[in-house]
Amino acid sequence: METISTDVAIIGAGGAGLRAAIALAETDPKLRIALISKVYPMRSHTCSAEGGAAGVIKPDDSFDLHFDDTAGGGDWLSDQDCVEYFIHEAPKELLQLEHWGCPWNREADGSVAVRPFGGMKKKRTWFAADKSGFHILHTLFQTSLQFPSITRYDEFFGLDLLIDEGRCQGVTAMEMRSGELRQFHAKAVIIAGGGGGRMFPFSTNGAIKTGDGMAMAYRAGAPLKDMEFVQYHPTGLPNTGSLLTEACRGEGGILVNKNGRRYLQDYGMGPETPVGKPQLKTMELGPRDRVSQAYWHELQKGNTVSTQWGECVLLDMRHLGEKYIDERLPLVRELCASYLQVDIVKDPVPIRPVVHYMMGGISTNTKAATPIPGLFAAGECACVSLNGANRLGSNSLVELLVFGRRAALSAIEHIQGLPAANTKALNARAVETQKRIDGLYARTNGTESMSGVRKEMMDTMEKNAGIYRTEEGLQEGVKIIHDLRQRYDKVILTDKSKVFNTDLFQMLELGSMLDCAEAVTVGALARKESRGAHQRLDYAERDDNKFLRHTMAYFKGLEPPRIDYLDVVITKSPPGVRDYSGDHK
Amino acid sequence: MKERLVQLEVLRYNPDTDTEARFQRYEVTCAEEWVVLDALNKVKADIDPTLNYRWSCHMAVCGSCGMMINGEPKLSCHTFLRDYEGVIRVEPLVHFPVERDLVTAPDDFMEKLKRVKPYIIPKEKKPISEGEYKQTPAQLMKFRQYSMCINCMLCYAACPEYGLTPHFIGPAALTLAHRYNQDSRDGGRKERQEVVATHEGVWECTFVGACSESARRTSTPRAPCSR
Ligand SMILES: Cc1cc2nc3c(=O)[nH]c(=O)nc-3n(C[C@H](O)[C@H](O)[C@H](O)COP(=O)(O)OP(=O)(O)OC[C@H]3O[C@@H](n4cnc5c(N)ncnc54)[C@H](O)[C@@H]3O)c2cc1C
Ligand code: SF4
Ligand code: FES
């Protein structure tokens, strides 16, 4: 197996991975950087983010307000030292992107424009039309091209971390084109592998979001934190799951049920605001968890609209008018027209909540460090505890930047004065990867089909660990996922070729998703309270006495994870009531 | 939901085992509203796990899923079954080497993007602490439409000149150069011009407009070389 020696290896070339790579290259041009990604960087899922990125910039806004929105929005499960660091870094990072050429929308005077976003008290979301993530990703990718010290390994599938003497010192990966394994020996490793929303059947996430980075760290001994918190976005297209950005509501779209009632007012987000005059942090601009949960209640009450794609509510944007829609929401209009054949200028769009984002992930501290020395993580795969129990829309694109950079700086600190690697020991670890892959090819006693196991996993996650959860449902979910993990070892690899074998990649991805899914269900079963995106019908209240704590899941092989807890860092905002009833009442 | 039996004819090739490419036919039941990618996904899940192609976003923004569909370069996630009758023929993007089945090697394209220095070369450098570079909406509009390229490579498959003269830098890379040249924050036009205006650059374009035809189909702007 070929060995590639480098200083820092980054797994993932989305927003977080690219930002980390650039920070490394800028800070110390002598560092050798290996940027490993299973897709070409610009295919990373950051490209699909539409709405925008939050950072305090306007004179009527303040850091304290951004702090309060984030901590409260996260239902007080955010670590407040992390939030504090984040809100101060956010505008600097967004300005840095501006200097790198990101085409942010502008005010008439040439300053950066901001838009309202759900759960944010002030307008502070920077945006580039409705392709914000796309522009962030491409700006970062293009900017990264000027640094000769960044060596990209595009379409290399990351497999296992190399841990020796308790330190992370590299990773194995497969060159997808040839099927050859490589070992990367590195003084530090940054995981930026993105989320794992594809473990659910109905998701805004692209096919690549299978939790590989999380699973890789988890298997190597790093705990996964707060995995039970899975965000549903209130407005997904009912057939493809494609996202209709929150900006639809930010710009004035309204949600109505089959009776034409703006039902959000019945779930603590009223009173009703005038149509087309959205007010921050109330009604349609309530937080995602609450708005998605309201759908579930409407469904129970029989207030939803039956469509050929299942039960939906309606997002009505007609009153915005064609001109405004084309100016502000062109992508939304295009998506609805082509995939649903609905023109939002003329008709309301049927929508339903869709799995969108994982608040949980590899446990990191404010320095983006995991408990394993030499291993850092940033972006959606990490849980730095910014988002708590519910991420506010437009905080996560900024999280990629802030903590991508932070991971780079921490990695640089870490590698100063490290002892030389024991290459023999690392080689021996890498051989284990080789054996694992050879085993998959050689398997002859397979009895399970991959698509069958995958479908069962997805259906279980939706049925047993969806918007609302119960003890019974979760117990069943835990059991099924546990069984599926055993059955995974009997899945057949049909395609035995070495060259670009997507059957193999899907098999590996399924393994990652199952590991992550188990952490989600076991964590959810143990958390006997309702907080943010984790809602239990049998424990309807938040319980700060018992659960103002982070769930920590430790990998135990084929057994379910060991669950432990870690206190939340509260500095200045004690848990309070999340009030989205608006100032106008 | 209305369903329909769809016949796909997919070009298969595995360099490990095949001496040449061959068509394979699949029949799958699809919803009327599906895209070609959905049909391929169903084939892969239910019929033939050994079929290989790239995709991710399913919303025409990641640029992964370009392929020839009935002879035209298309994004398979944005090509609707409702627009086709009879057998749908699916092949890898032309003008790129095939890695396997519908997976092509974009190395040359990636190299060309890099060559045009697609990043701000600042007119005047200033620290972050001094805030943003002011840019009016009108200045933004001068380049925004050229910043929308999703790197799907359809225009390279469509471009007859690229097919004949592979060193031609091609529509997407030229668009990108133009995007930065038009940006009020940028002062790098001269550096880029060295690449863009040489014999491999814009002058190779024969102005047949094939790239803008394909770009129109991806809802991206026309490449500047075709204006
Ligand atoms: C539709 C949609 C809209 C959104 N809109 C917004 C918004 O408006 N505002 C906001 O703040 N947030 C938004 N988000 C959330 C935000 O976009 C994501 O959380 C964020 O982009 C994730 O970035 P990332 O860098 O962590 O991961 P990604 O961009 O997903 O990148 C992951 C990288 O890891 C690599 N990788 C994964 N596994 C492996 C492996 N095994 N080996 C090698 N490489 C691997 C991939 O190749 C990829 O390069 C949105 C999310 C979605 C899905
Ligand atoms: S210019 Fe258009 S067709 Fe060409 S690569 Fe870019 S998006 Fe694709
Ligand atoms: S799957 Fe992303 S462009 Fe088609």
Please tag this protein with its features:
heterodimer, A: 585 residues, alpha/beta, Flavocytochrome C3, Chain A, domain 1, Methane Monooxygenase Hydroxylase, Chain G, domain 1, 5-stranded parallel β-sheet, 5-stranded mixed β-sheet, B: 227 residues, Ubiquitin-like (UB roll), Fumarate Reductase Iron-sulfur Protein, Chain B, domain 2, 29% helix, disordered C terminus, binds iron/sulfur cluster, binds FE2/S2 (inorganic) cluster
Q: What does this entry look like structurally?
A:
The complex is a heterodimer of chains A (585) and B (227). In chain A, 35% of the residues lie in helices and 19% in strands. Chain A is of the alpha/beta class and 585 residues long. In chain A, the strands form six sheets. Chain A has a five-stranded parallel sheet with strand order 7-3-2-11-19, sandwiched between helices. Chain A has a five-stranded mixed sheet with strand order 20-18-12-23-24. In chain A, strands 13, 14, 15, 16 and 17 form a five-stranded antiparallel sheet that branches. In chain A, helix 1 (15-27) packs parallel to helix 10 and helix 12 (450-464) runs parallel beside helix 14. The mean pLDDT of chain A is 95. With 227 residues, chain B is an alpha+beta fold. Chain B has two domains: 3-104, Ubiquitin-like (UB roll), CATH 3.10.20.30; 107-216, Orthogonal Bundle (Fumarate Reductase Iron-sulfur Protein, Chain B, domain 2). Chain B has helices spanning 36-47, 107-115, 137-144, 154-158, 160-164, 171-181, 189-196, 210-217, and strands at residues 3-12, 22-31, 66-69, 72-75, 88-91, 98-100, 103-104. Chain B has a five-stranded mixed sheet with strand order 2-1-5-3-4. The longest helix of chain B has 12 residues, at 36-47. The relative contact order of chain B is 0.14. Chains A and B meet through helix 3, helix 4 and helix 9 of A and helix 1, helix 2 and helix 3 of B. The complex binds flavin-adenine dinucleotide (FAD), iron/sulfur cluster and FE2/S2 (inorganic) cluster (FES). FE2/S2 (inorganic) cluster binds at residues 55-58, 60-65, 75, 77 of chain B.
